[in-house]
Amino acid sequence: MAMSGHLLSILIFFPAFGALALLFLRADDQLWIRRLTFVVSVVEFLFSLILLKPVTIGAPGYSLVEYKPWITAPPINYHLGVDGISLFLVILTTFLTPLCVMASWNGVHHRIKEFHVMLLLLEVGIIGVFLALDLFLFFLFWEVMLIPMAFLIGIWGHDRRIYDAVKFFIYTMFGSAFMLVGILWLYNLTGSLDLPAIQSLLQTGVYHLSPRAEMLLFLSFFLAFAIKVPLFPLHTWLPDAHVEAPTAGSIILAGVLLKMGTYGMMRFCLPLFPEASHRAAPWVAILAIIGIIYGALVALVQPNLKKLVAYSSVSHLGFVVLGIFTFHAISMQGAVYQMLAHGISTGALFFLVGMLYDRRHTFEISEYGGLCAPMPKFAAFFCFVALSSMGLPMLNGFVGEFLILLGTYQVHWTWASWAATGVILSACYLLWAYQRVFFGEITRQKNRELPDADSREYWGLMAFAVVILWMGIGSPYFTRRIAAPVDALIQQTRSHFAEEAGRRGLQPPHHGTEQHGGLAPEFRAASLAAGFRDLHGRVVSR
Amino acid sequence: MPNPILNSLWIIPLLPLLGSAINGLFGKAWPNKIVSSIALGSTGISFLCALEAVREFLAGGSLPFRKEFFDWIVAGNFRAGFDLQLDQLTVVMLLVVTGVGFLIHIYSTGYMAHEGGYYRFFSYLNLFMFFMLILVLAANYVLLFVGWEGVGLCSYLLIGFYFLKKSAADAGKKAFIVNRIGDFGFMLGMFLLFRSFHSLDFKTVFDAAATWQPDAMGQFGTMTVACLLLFVGATGKSAQLPLYVWLPDAMEGPTPVSALIHAATMVTAGVYVVARSHVLFTHAPTAMYVVAIVGCATAFFAATIGLVQSDIKKVLAYSTVSQLGYMFLGCGVGAFSAGIFHLMTHAFFKALLFLAAGSVIHAMGGEQDMWHMGGLSKKIKITFWTMLVATIAIAGFPPFAAFFSKDAILFSAYNSQAGGKALYTVGLLAAVLTSFYMFRLIWLTFFGEQRYDEHHVHVHESPLSMTVPLMILALLSFTGGWFAAPPLWGGKDYFSEFLSPVFGAAAETGEAAHSLELALSGVAVVAALAGLIVAWRMYSKKVERGTSTGLHKLLYDKYYVDELYLAAVVRPLVWLSTSVLWKVIDAGAIDGTVNGLAHGAQAIGDTVRHTQSGNTRSYAVWVVVGAIVVFAIIFWPVLHPALFGGVR
Known about the structure:
Radius of gyration of chain A: 23 Å
Mean pLDDT of chain B: 87
Order of helices and strands of chain A: HHHEEHHHHHHHHHHHHHHHHHHH
Radius of gyration of chain B: 32 Å
Structural class of chain A: mainly alpha
Strand order of the largest sheet of chain A: 1-2
Helix content of chain A: over 70%
Largest sheet of chain A: 2 strands, antiparallel
Number of domains of chain A: 1
Largest sheet of chain B: 2 strands, antiparallel
Oligomer: heterodimer
Strand order of the largest sheet of chain B: 1-2
């Protein structure tokens, strides 16, 4: 079928056509602009669901690959592909976009056409980032995506929007500049910009990077991604950007944009620079753990509800980074899962906070209190989403967090123990905020008459709630698809490293030998005798 | 199909979940009758299903039943499924949870009849039943953790049921967070178990652990750590030192909730986990010892606070903490079946005490302070008599329930290896205190002159829906101990025998042990009597609330532990977060650097832009300067020796 051959291209550019179509509508025809955008984004979501079929379970590698030569010198090609890791991130993006349209229904009142055009262009950039397999193409989408986002903040944001739009833009550009240098360096070295090609060239040892060069290259990519995640201490753009962004901007920003950073780490840093990744891992992990605890503690004392949610993202994304840099099958699957879960939960939280803002035009927690009485439905949804965010079992947040911590514990129990304090702290900041907003007597007269969720908001929240519950109960549906590429990724980093180490006559790094680290010798023998699986799923026999 | 219920064991937890969902989603518009019939129906049928499952289990030769229903989390070599199991220990828990739970549901229809949020209450209560049943039926640690966290959630929701009251909302939050601290330990415990056994399935873990040999030092290092971590979780959920602080505050919730969640079922989950993991604990003597000491210390500590409280529910709350301590003491000295036995009898008499207290509060129009009661025995006869039964039971007079269960624990403690006599002595002292504070409660509430204004309070007996559960529970509190009457009472320890496939057969006790046991029972009765007499001497006459000083004040203010936690943990953390992390590090150092760089760039640009003056002559100067620099660079090899050659 002609279409499925170009499904990925269609996925990327369909929203752009939608944006084009919007231009033909009259600027004051608010309702139809919103409706058209909504329809386009829902159709896009349905398109993205088609991806589920061709991405085979249990097989690593890219599906639906599209390859068109584009520029001959330098050899830049239009190379797209999807695997189990990018699959759900694309679907997450297409799922959140219609909800963004719904969230903006009451919140955005001026330049409505431009707003929706930007929203759709943003989707183009993000999906492009997740599907591009050419370094230049990736970089292109990475930068393209910045522009609509900066406009969303700068035009439709709140009071300090210009400051924060500029801050967001420059912060990210700062990192991207390093990545561009890294990309050019790789091109000079290998003569290629194609990710799979470079990967195999480096892995098979055709080109050899000195440890120093590898580390510098790693850092050039890592810096760009770490800013995006954001990893402590590069996070200060995030709370500001969130507070000023319109609701739709926040949903996309927290839901998807941050994952571009962690996705980049998995797609580029680890497979291209495995040895440097291993060497940097302890430092990265420490920053991630600091981020987990620090983000949670700062979230605890925010007087601004939206900032609170923003800092909670710093904390949650710390888990993801930790899960990736543990190089353990369980924790890395958990990390991918946590990306998705966080996208849903935090997207929903921003949706909810946006609803409050639409009604009262403030994010100050002290302006609220006792909202349970006038807004029971809203309060119930907020409670549900907050519980999912703090990782209650049977809701989506638990699976990712649990797998990350479980996997991390197997190789570095101290890391896991420190990170697990985040589980306590997330309950603290969310419950405290919840109490101050929803419980007690109503203290402000204005809040007495606040309308509860209307039917549009109700169904939007329902969509979130269904996914939250489904991801919490039916996680194998996702992890079965995530497993193969993650295992392959770990295999790539490991075999390469072992080879490297062997060549230089070094011992493998301790994480390799520590597979049975905490195990008493006598039990190790017992478990071997019993034919237990080792930590990576291979059956160990005598 | 044989064993219809056993093979679809999920139906037992699912029914209350359905009830909860239906009431939660649609119950708001419905009259109370429909809401309560859905809630009662779902738990009632669930109870019947549990009975049928147990019947099938026993008919099938009491073989442990285990079934995997679906995969829940799969990653790498880790698998956690929705796997349920039924063995003797689960049978006990299952019947207690569904049976007592059902009775409390009935009671609640009366108690909550005039409260707002009726549908909400029953929705939460049913949800609690769902999670509690998951907890006891789970066949792996992760699914158990689902129930574990879920009951915590329901506890949070129900404590904060009267959310307009700040104290209620605070108490709910406190309960959840303190439990989370325990869960932190529990999770790490699970991680360590997985690291050691590559599975979190009960059967796999316990089978592997059973064959584990000690290391050269005779120690089981990993096992000890894992058990202690699990026990941290248990101290949170079961309100033991030092994490007990949430339970007394939890009394802000409606009284049926206190009876069901904070007395009979949820708080015993920690005991259940320890008993369930007994294979691990028996391989970790150090951990066992810690369990015993913490349990014993809590039993005594909480009892001392209970001595002087004036709120009727607070007395019972500390009593619960104290009794849970006994259960841990039993488990800690290896008498798991005695611990579980006390769990069961406690579920009966403590649920009864709370429900009766609720009936008193109901009768008094919401009054909870015992100093504003008095002389109620003639006015609310059923409540009085049933509560008296429960009091005699908890105080430990034969042949009431707790006499047998508490005796079994103290006897085992006495016989345990290290420090058994000390554990026994403290436990016995706690028993004296228990008897004292319970009879103090009885006298203050039901005897003496009335200390309330009869014109304002119209004391009335509660409706049948409340008194019938009281009577049933009173019967159980009276007879519940007979399952395990020691041989010298002419009975047989059916309970231990029933549980022996799980915990192993009890050691045969010789004649000497029999006489020792008889002597210890005698001592226990004397202890209970002592408490009774002191309480009678102090409170049977005309009494008034005295001013609180010295030791009394220390106890009344609960040793200031809450204040200590507030000053030592909560406030410093908030201060650190606000004044250091947020204001100084985040806004100051990090963002300051970022903005500083931006300002620096701006400043450089500002300075350098002055060179773009638009003045031709200054441009000419720059051209000349530039030319000189370029020439200097080009001719540097020539210039260098020419200029500096002489120096060398």
